[in-house]
Design a protein that fits this description.
The protein is mainly α and about 110 residues long. It has helices spanning about 5-20, 25-35, 40-55, 80-100, 100-105; strands at about 55-60, 75-80. The chain contains 5 helices and 2 strands; from the N terminus they run αααββαα. The N and C termini lie far apart (about 35 Å).
Length: about 110
Amino acid sequence: MGALGEFEQLVLLAVLRAGDEAYGTRVLDEIRAAGVKRAARGAVYVTLGRLEEKGLLRGRTSDDGAGERGGRPRRYLRVTGEGLRALRASRSTLIRLWSGLEGVLGEAER
């Protein structure tokens, strides 16, 4: 498994935050709530599909009656064990790279 891109990390973290209610729109809402205001719906859906193809997410189609309301059934997602490992590896790498740069970057935000 290669390194995760920044947006892939954001999407995986948003899926984790959304928990059992992780579907496309909810994931987008989580990303925007974190301060990424320019996240495009299409980019989120493309990334969700790519992460599922990589085995980092697993999806299931709902049976909550969304199709009866005229819409498509929701596709709920969860992060797989491989996805969790990829996030942990990415986090560790970032922590190592940030370490020791406090003086260059200034004090951490409080």
